[in-house]
């Protein structure tokens, strides 16, 4: 079966399979975070997504065309949720400890105790819920969820938070959700962590806040990937970046490779 891929996630984990560059030859599309246009794949029989986010998979259109969609199994998804939550906690702690001192001059900065800092978890689903639970061991934790809270509850939480960490899906309603107004609610010196989707934050509004030195941010997801945007011109301690690796541990990759192999086998079954 001929496979076209726009992700490197499973590179080295799928020996013996046939990959093609020409989309018109592809029978299966192996996709990462980028969207695909089904009109470019006249022979497509299946789409497999290597992560749990579904915003870039045209499921309804695929269903109409008789194209089967596959996703990581529940066991694999659990690995994704846990590893992404752990990575988000790493970024939160990195932001909260961003200003501690200077080694070369042996300067120690005055800082508040971690136990007194407040972390706002926005979105309490499979990943956000885990982040909230893990961070309770270190700091004060508050939560906001679009399905559980009123919108007027968000502003006071944002104003109090030393760090807000984002765990909401990308939909038409959440695109650019963290805009000039909401970022403006954040207090001076606060941080924004994003391991969800880049587009839930207004890129230009974030750039203004970071360039002014008022906020800092740590992002593992971006508006276009690979990201080459203007935020990279900011000091690296102001905009902390990683290449969409929050879930990418070897256990996840191996499990996903197994799921993809099983998906290919299912396409051979009537």
Question: What features would you highlight for this structure?
Answer:
270 residues, alpha/beta, six-stranded parallel β-sheet, five-stranded parallel β-sheet, 7 helices, 13 strands, 29% helix, elongated
What does the overall shape look like? elongated
- The count of β-strands is 13
Cα(first) to Cα(last) distance is 15 Å
Counting helices, strands and paired strands, the structural category is: alpha/beta
Q: Largest beta sheet, briefly?
A: 6 strands, parallel
Task: Identify the quaternary structure here.
Answer: single chain
Task: Supply Rg.
Answer: 20 Å
Structure summarized in a few sentences:
This protein is of the alpha/beta class and 270 residues long. 29% of the residues lie in helices and 17% in strands. Strand 6 and strand 7 (107-108) form a beta hairpin.
Write the layout of secondary structure elements.
Blueprint (H helix, E strand, L loop, with lengths): L1 E4 L12 E2 L8 E4 L14 E4 L9 H6 L3 E3 L3 H23 L4 E2 L4 E2 L9 E5 L5 H8 L4 E5 L9 H7 L2 E4 L13 H6 L5 E4 L8 H9 L4 E4 L19 E3 L8 H18 L3
Parallel strand pairs: 1-2, 1-3, 3-4, 4-5, 8-9, 8-10, 10-11, 11-12, 12-13
Antiparallel strand pairs: 6-7
């Amino acid at each position: 079966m001929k496979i076209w891929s726009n992700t490197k996630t499973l590179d080295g984990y799928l020996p013996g399979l046939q990959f093609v560059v020409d989309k018109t030859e592809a029978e299966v599309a192996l996709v990462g975070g980028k969207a695909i246009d089904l009109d470019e794949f006249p022979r497509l029989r299946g789409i497999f997504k290597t992560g749990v986010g579904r915003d870039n998979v045209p499921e309804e259109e695929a269903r109409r065309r008789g194209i089967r969609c596959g996703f990581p199994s529940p066991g694999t998804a659990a690995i994704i949720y846990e590893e992404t939550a752990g990575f988000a906690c790493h970024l939160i702690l990195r932001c909260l400890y961003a200003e501690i001192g200077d080694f070369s001059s042996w300067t120690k900065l005055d800082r508040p105790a971690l136990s007194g800092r407040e972390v706002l978890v926005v979105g309490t689903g499979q990943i956000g819920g885990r982040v909230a639970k893990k961070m309770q061991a270190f700091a004060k934790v508050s939560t906001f969820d679009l399905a559980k809270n009123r919108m007027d509850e968000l502003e006071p939480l944002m104003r109090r938070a030393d760090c807000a960490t984002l765990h909401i899906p990308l939909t038409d309603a959440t695109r650019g959700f963290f805009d000039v107004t909401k970022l403006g609610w954040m207090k001076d010196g606060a941080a924004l962590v994003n391991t969800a989707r880049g587009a839930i934050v207004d890129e230009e509004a974030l750039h203004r806040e970071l360039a002014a030195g008022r906020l800092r941010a740590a992002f593992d997801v971006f508006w276009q990937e690979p990201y080459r945007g203007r935020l990279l011109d900011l000091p690296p301690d102001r905009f902390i970046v990683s290449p969409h690796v929050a879930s990418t541990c070897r256990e996840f990759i191996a499990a996903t490779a197994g799921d993809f192999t099983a998906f290919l086998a299912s396409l051979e079954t009537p």
